[in-house]
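Researcher: I've got a protein sequence and the SMILES for pyridoxal-5'-phosphate. Could you write out the 3D structure of the bound complex as structure tokens? I'd like something to compare against our soaking experiments later this week.
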Amino acid sequence: MNRQHYTIQKIAALLPALESTIVEDLEVEHLVIDSRRLINPDASLFFALQGHRDGHQFISDAYNNGVRSFVVSDRAYTTRYVDANYLLVADVLRALQQLSAHNRSLYDLKVIGITGSNGKTIVKEWLYQLLANDFNVVKSPKSFNSQIGVALSLWEIDQAHDLGIIEAGISRPGEMAVLEAMIRPGIGVLTNIGEAHAEGFFTMEEKLLEKLKLFKDVVVFVYSPAYTTGIPEAQLPGKRKFSWSFNSKADLQVISCETKDHRTLLTAIVKGKKVSCMLPFSDKASLENAVICWATLIAMGYDVAVAASRLNGLMMVGMRLELKNGINQCSIIDDSYSADISSLAIALDFLNLQNQHERKTVILSDLFETGRSKAALYAEIADLLAQKQIKHLIGIGPDLSAHKHLLPGDSKFYPNTVAFLEDLPNLHFQNESILVKGARVFEFERISKRLTQKVHDTVLEIDLSALANNLQFYRAKLKPGVKVMAMVKAFSYGSGSFEIANVLQYHKVDYLAVAYTDEGIALRRAGIKLPIMVMSPEPAAFDAIVCYQLEPEIYSLEILEQFNAFMENNAGTFPVHLKIDTGMHRLGFEEGDIETLLNALQRTKRIKVRSIFSHLVASDDAVHDAFTRQQLEVFNEIAGRISAAVGYEPLKHIANTAGITRVPDAQLDMVRVGIGLYGFDAALKNNRGLQTVARLKTTVTQVRQVKANESVGYSRRGVMPQDGSIATVKIGYADGYSRMFGNGVGRMLVNGTAVPTIGSICMDMCMLDVTGLDVKTGDEVVVFDDVLTIEMLAEQIQTIPYEILTNISQRVKRVYFYE
Ligand SMILES: *Cc1c(COP(=O)(O)O)cnc(C)c1O
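Model: Sure. Here is the predicted complex with pyridoxal-5'-phosphate in place.
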């Protein structure tokens, strides 16, 4: 037994708990914070964390899923279930951290602690790739680097490990000291320091000093002087220091980078000697991350040349689950990230959140875990599959085949990937969601390639985790009990249909809203069960509205009469939403309509007013605050009259995204969040706190040399300012890249450098002036992302982010990521 043995009794004493109720002294193997993400519920201890939402609310969910042990801070919950164990503590997060810190303290292993603004996760994964042959490594899963993530990572340490690679991230001052006390790294790696405000700091120095707290007691400190400006070397941490740099003197000083065919020959001077290494990338961020890894290996005592030769084999890490359209109407979830049991649990959850197909299939390779027997590992995998109700498994590899008897009945097994690919034509995958998850040696990318539709070269990448994060951001701003309606009209602001709705449903928003009946029908057909409001319900679609249980917005006496007349022939009552015009002057009942409306409502038995709502016209702008107040007053007055007349209290709502933050009084019973989910909020400076959801990328089709004064494109509008080169890229106005971006107004990022358009934008293509840059056919071009933002594009052509996003045409393929 490699793992330290923990029981509830022992943990109660360790914390120590203020009070404990132990009905059965269960063993604890897993610490869980999400009632939906369970591996082995009997052996799980649930921590009711006080986050955006109160974790105590999820105790019943966890209990229903089989968990019987809970750490709580609210005494009222300790008597909820008679057959459950409770540990009462003052602070649940603190308890989680104490327990993990204790586990860490039992082992005398070497620990590399990594922090910085960017690159932490990549550096961690690469150090793992570089060191896994020499050590038994325990590392943070995915980007688990927060106050919670670090605790969960440290809990995994056991006797078998002799190296830990743990990343630490912070969101506000004061947090790093807590992480340091838990991680206690011996080797410290600082990746870099980016913009201060992005992480809740006022100055760069304040931020740097906070990050350096992680390295308080390290023996070796790996850093670049470029990121420690302002701090004298003597004040840097570490008994030994090892510096790296691209442009100044350092222990590892890069003196040249030559890029050819996406590979880079990097030459550096280390200890007075020139050494080169070949890296399989060319982008700036990857080169820097690779140099950090090189420096770390040298600082750990590796021979400079040996370390250099290992870098040669580094592989890009795809850290995210990818959801793509597959062949024969399948949805393919591609998880090439890692192949351990905790990431399998996450991937299965994501598979289960897909409602668009009834049938779900898992294609899984043998997994490799240290410190555990195969029998135990496959028993656990079998449990996990059973718990996630996976009935169709395709197992690839000798180990899975050898444990057939444990696995679902309707499974197929293949000795290796090639055997599976040979049999693929006989398997007839159709209309199902398929998770493809394999350890690297199995080369499952060959499988995903065969199962997915060819993605065209212009792709809109949607980060579903960022969307979920943005939802939580707004939830945290709501007063208790306020409901959330998520606006998914116009193909979720251009981002997608059921792909977005599945995530919103999983995260339990209360309502969805679409513009047209068709959009609502598409969501119902994809298995979305949430209530859906339709804002423009055309009378011809009333039948479909009733049939698909959509809920119409009623915005005029005329449409009310039409709906009433339609409902005469239907049994029962039907929910509707009344729209009041308080100043937008778009749709809705006006003050003068209200008497007639009340009469009409009292006459009909077939209509149930589910909600009354209005829309703020300028919630993001302080200049119009008086008008906003007035809208709110008018609304409250009218909504009060309607409630009194119908004799019950429909939900009342008026706030959109910007209203949530700026006008808390307007939250009422529900808010309608739209653009904020997608990462924009005019009421927040620099969208602080929100994450980028959409990235639009395309590729270079051709590069050519053009002489000075020659013209480029239609009508000779572009003129070459000097001899130089032009790259033609695969995006045009038919893809949603407006003609207004032509002639140097718009910019795109080519290998990280912003370059202007030249000439007019064509229907399917446009041209960029890439003079002086090393650009080749096939290179990736960023149209917008988190650096070149949609807001910048909106500013260039004097519009708003909403329009840029929703203009991306449907022929541009969407690919979804989930972390
Ligand atoms: C689109 C829409 C919203 C969402 O507005 P955002 O500014 O995107 O948050 C809210 N309410 C109504 C009626 C809408 O049409």
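Model: The radius of gyration is 29 Å. The longest strand covers residues 694-706.
Researcher: Great, I'll pass this along to the crystallography team.
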